[in-house]
Design a protein that fits this description.
Strands 1, 2, 4, 5, 6, 7, 10, 11 and 12 form a nine-stranded mixed sheet that branches. A five-stranded antiparallel sheet has the order 13-14-15-16-17, with helices on one face. It has a two-stranded antiparallel sheet with strand order 3-18. It has 17 helices and 18 strands. A hairpin with a 2-residue loop joins strand 14 and strand 15 (406-411). The protein is α/β, with parallel strands linked by helices.
Amino acid sequence: MTTKPLLHWTRRCVGTVLLIGALSCGQANAGNQRPVILISIDSLRADHCTPYGHTAQFTQEKTTPFLQKMADEGVVFENCSASAPWTLPSHISILTAMHPMEHGVRARRFRLPADTENIAGKFKSAGYQTAAFYSAPFLHPSWGYYPGFDTYVAAAPYLNSKEATDAMMNVGSPEIKEFHDVADTDKENAPHVVDHALQWLEKDDRKDTPFFLFLHFWDPHYNYQAPDDYNRLFLPDFSDADLKLGATFTPRLPREYTPEEILRLKALYNAEIRYTDDQIARLFDQLVQWGLDNDVIIAIVSDHGDHFGEHGQYYHHRTLYEEVTHVPMVLRAPGLLEPAQRVAGSVANYDVGPTLLDLAELTAWTERSGRSALPLLLSGGSHEIQMDLLHPGQKLDLRGWREAQNKVLWDTRQQTFSAWDLTKDPEENDPAYMSSPNETAVSSKASAAFRAAETTAGQAAPMTEDPEMKRKLAELGYIDG
C-alpha cells in the first residue's frame, strides 16, 4: 500500500498538513482507501490516561504509554463526552453517530432495526473489508451491531454460543447476568481481541487491502482482575487481599469503601488499563512490521468511565457526572493530521465515526447528530452534545447537555434542571438548580436541544427475533442455521 496519491492530494489542497478531509477539498465521495481501525476501551476514564495528565498513586508507571504515543503523533480531544454511562447505548452511538435518544436503544429491551446503517456499512460500500472483534455481552450482535460487518465475532468463546444468544434476546432472563459475570472475571480479554484481529488481517492478505476494523476491549470494566504482574506494577505490595478487593467491585456486591481501599481499587483499575494498552501496542507493533503504521488511521475512544466514591457513587450506570462521561478520544493519521495537537472544544464519542469518514474522504451522514471533529482543529469552538441515562431498575431517566464548559442535567422524572460551568466547578460539587429551564441562556439552549431530540427520537426495534436477524445471526455462527 502507498500514500503517495494521498499526500499529493494533501499538498495540492492545503499545503501545510494540518488536516485534510471533505471539509477542505470537497472530495467526500472519492475515498483514499487508507486502512482504518476504531478501538473502544470499555469503562476508561479520561483522567486515568497518561495524555490527560494521570499520575499513578503508588508507582511511576504510566497507565497508557501507547495512548501517549498516539497523542504525541496525533490529536487529543481534551473534552470528549460519552453519550451514555453504560456499554450498550454508548457503543450503539459510537458506531452510528447518533446519541441515545436518536437511535432509541436506551435499555436492553431494544435493538437497532436491521436496516440501520453504521460506520462499517459506510466503509463496506466504499470497497473496504470490514470486521469487528468484541469482548463484552452488550456488544453481542443481537442488539443490531452486525450490519455492514463482513465478520462480527466475540473474542471470548462463551459469547459465540447459542446459549449466549438466547440469553441476550430474552429480555427478562437473568442468564445475561451470568454471562456478564463471566466476562467481568475474565482476566485475559485483550490478547484474544488482538489475536483475532491479527489472524483476520493475515488471512487472504487482507492487510494489503483497504480494511475497517472495530475492536472492543472489555478489561478495564469491573471487576478489576488484571494478571498479577500488572497488578504489581501499580500496587507493589499487591496481595490476596487486593485480589479479593478487586473482585468485590461490582454492583452485585455493593458496599462502602474506605479511602485506602479506594486508592487500591484505583491502582487495580490502572493495572487493567495498562494491560489493555500493552495489548493494543502489540497490535501496532505488527502493523509496523507489515509496513502499515504510516498508512493506517487509528482512533481510540471509550464508552464511559467508573465512579470511585465521587458524588457518593461507585461503578457506573447511575449518573451523568464527569467521572463517567469524560472519556478519551485520540486520533492518529500520519500525513493527514499534524502530530501533538490538542483540541479543547467539547465533542461526543458519537463524533468519532464522522471524523474517521472525513479522514477517509467518505461521505458521513448529514441527518445524524454526530459530526466530524476535524473543523475544530482549524476553527476552535465546540460541538453541542447530548448524553442520556435511562435505568428503569433505578427509576432514573436523566438527560445531559454540554457545550464547551457549560453543562446541564435534566432529571425528567423530578423535572429539575441543574447546571455547571466546569471551568469554575470541574468536580460538579456546586450546581445551579433551576425550577424552570429558561432561567439562563445556557439552560434555555439546553432545554431547546432536549425538546428537539424528543421530537426526532428514533424508533428502536423491540428485542425480539425476526427472520432477518435470525438469518444474519446464523450466518455469523451464533445460532443453528
